[in-house]
Write a structure and sequence with these properties.
GO terms for molecular function: metalloendopeptidase activity; zinc ion binding. Its cofactor is Zn(2+). Pfam families: PA, Peptidase_M36, Por_Secre_tail. This protein is α+β, with helices and mostly antiparallel strands and 894 residues long. It folds into 6 domains: 81 residues, Roll (Nuclear Transport Factor 2, Chain: A), CATH 3.10.450; 90 residues, Nuclear Transport Factor 2, Chain: A (Roll), CATH 3.10.450; 171 residues, Elastase, domain 1 (Roll), CATH 3.10.170.10; 146 residues, Glucose Oxidase, domain 1 (3-Layer(bba) Sandwich), CATH 3.50.30; 189 residues, Neutral Protease, domain 2; 75 residues, Immunoglobulin-like. It is built from 11 helices and 36 strands. A hairpin with a 4-residue loop joins strand 2 and strand 3.
Length: 894
Amino acid sequence: MKNNYAKKLLFLAVLVFANVVYSQSKLMDSNYASVIQNYLNQNKDKFGLTVSDISDLSVENEYLSKNTKITHVYVNQRYQGVAILNAVSSVAIKGNVVFYYANNFIGNINDKVNTVSPQLTAEQAIQNAATSLNLGSVQNLDLVKNVNNNNYVFSNGNISQTNIPVRLVYFQNETGNLILSWDLSIHTLDGANWYSVRVDAISGEILNQNDWILACNFGDNQHENHNHLVNASNQKSSDFQLFKDASYLADGSQYNVFALPVESPNHGSRTLLSEPADLNASPFGWHDTNGVTGAEFTNTRGNNVWAMEDRNGNDGFGYSPNGSTSLNFDFPLNLNQQPELYQDASITNLFYVNNVMHDIWYQYGFDEVSGNFQANNYGNGGVGNDYVRADGQDGNGIGGSINNAFFGTPPDGSNPTMRMFLWSAPAGVQDLVTVNNSSALGTYAAVNPATTAPNNLPGIGTTPVTADLQLVNDNSANPSEGCSAIASVAGKIAVIRRGTCPFVDKIQNAQNAGAVAVIVVNHNNPTNDPAYVPYVNMAGETNPPLNIPSVFMNFADGELLIAAMQNETVNVTLQGPSPFMLDGSLDNMIVAHEYGHGISNRLTGGPSQAGCLTNQTQMGEGWSDWFALMITLQDTEDYAAGRGMVTYASGQGVNGIGIRNAKYATDFSVNGFTYADTNNAAQVSQPHGIGFIWATMLYDLTEAYVAKYGFDADIYNGTGGNNKVMQLVLDGLKLQPCGPDFIEARDALLAADMATTGGEDQCMIWEVFANRGLGINASGGSKFSRTDQVEDFTMPLETDPSLQNCTSLSVDEFRQSDYRVYPNPTNNNLFIKTNKSFGQVTMTITDMNGRQVYNKQVDLFGTVEINMNTLQSGIYILNMKGLNIDANHKIIKN
């Protein structure tokens, strides 16, 4: 399934100028109907369509995008007046011509339709769905509205929170056939699910179902736990606050929150913000709903979001903090207590992040006509009455009420729902060691020993221990291992290297010598032993029990402290994490991620759709991660080292890997994932892992834009590379078809750049995606499969002459066409063949655990051979770095 981007940028003449209208579920009577129909008639063969396939179309949504000046028209394919589910193509009209067309129509539909007459009624379809989903007995089901032929709205039937819409559609199954079906949605009474269901209109069988409420299951990934606690004191300024429009209608509001770009309590302190609402996006403030001066609500409720608690998990309307008539939401926060005791501060933060997500992304095109979330659209088009319902400290999670977050996105005009949960108290590897002075100043990870069994080693509690470090000396051949009686370390934190004797013996010797605490430092792994682990959980029993705390550090950090101790007095504080659960509403990344689901769902396929991101390789989780990364991005971002996703709520330190397969990083030794990894069902989950790979590419693209255009701290109205890429991604979401794969999403970004800059950044965009395997010859495979994607690292240099001199990401006009790496996969040796001299180059190979297994300097010209016989089977990253080249390649060793 080869995609050629160049063929998609088509410019055709039209006859008349037409104004933009907003149209929902009408026949093909758009002002641009003739333009679109003519385009399809002329290009039907290119897309494998017949005259019949494009003879019955309806416009689901049509709106103007202010930035691109593109009119987005979302056209649904039908058969004899019945819509084909998700057969929605995105048509971009600019300058009265079809600028870009993203096809999602089905070919030869006459041969695929099973019937035109339903045998099952709409009411029977609801009954069948309720039975299949174990929702209980349907009662008092009444017809509320007959929208049009075979399109109804029924009452809730005592199984749904909302009325139940039902319409007749054709559903395409995996064999390609079109099955006449009833399409309906049920929002369960407990709020945990919002089922979208297809019921066979002949047999009554449930053909397909998905859930508009996305359970992100953040806590189910394999990762090390870390923790890093920072005192949540107040600051009185925010970089973002400097850019608020001075003409904003003052309402006196103030909010004590973890203000962006601060990511969480681990990453900074709270800030007392004054009137942070954006004039353009929220012209009457965050507490208005009627468009008249003066707040309608004094609690955490307004036009964009209603934030409340739901600790009993009944999905009702719970408690919201009240700021009084002065709208003062300055509540105390002490994290060393049960979360319910700081719910005012937590829900205020939840209210704040939802509002800034609304205001920020409004600037880039997530506005009323494109389906954003507002109670009152203030006369700006679209469908209102759909503010976000955000529940904090929710008590009704799937699989337990912790370590999770939900977001449900119905079509435009219905309220989305956000549900935030508590997270487990931190455990495992945490930031327990704080160096207060010296060249080693900073925080370091360590393991707190298990303390549950009697007489196990006591770990660090919440009461800090502060003292100078002292390396032990037991006067043996290995004096710093502390296996024998230790010379006095009275009043010191003893530092001991790991050795051959038991941990309890070392700590006992230090305690006998007067130590107030112990840090045990791991040994090195010079032979790259695959069984080596950087941290171990020390345990053991002594009689009498030990009474000083101890922690275990990795080799690199421990030796850094030991080196500093040689010439400096190193003072350290050891302090454990709070034993209390963590609150997801204080992790701005989680809130932003969840809100991001609403953005990608409303923009893909048009705002009246809600199920366009359900194909096997859909990237919804990736866009959501990227939204969270962007609002917390700073000019100090280290793109190579990268950043973990959701480190606070998952109990990790600020440098933790996060909840994904790797950090988001441009360095392949940190994050070496490429497009082909979407096929790896064993190690890359669906949809989170697939989304992670897409977000990795977007993170790389962000770095490229910032490198080219700089960083602008004004996230609302800035002109930096970060602002440009934010605009690009929003525009791309609007251009892509319903059910996009990686290829179609990439092409939509390229088209968005063409629309706004005339193609100024085509080279850069292509290079970023080709570097991760999404080159010109990459294939998305079938949308019914997640294991048939094909990666390719080729730039479109031959098919598009304008790209033949692409050098935006290269070093000194380096291009991949100047060399070849083969064979890949390899059984034995690897060869690099070049057609020009790159001079002295350092060749390194790194395994997927970040360990360097090969390092050699070569004169890269002609053919260079690398012996891989000694390496185990697996995936490696080859880096070639010199004055004229800096390139990474994923290598597979069979």
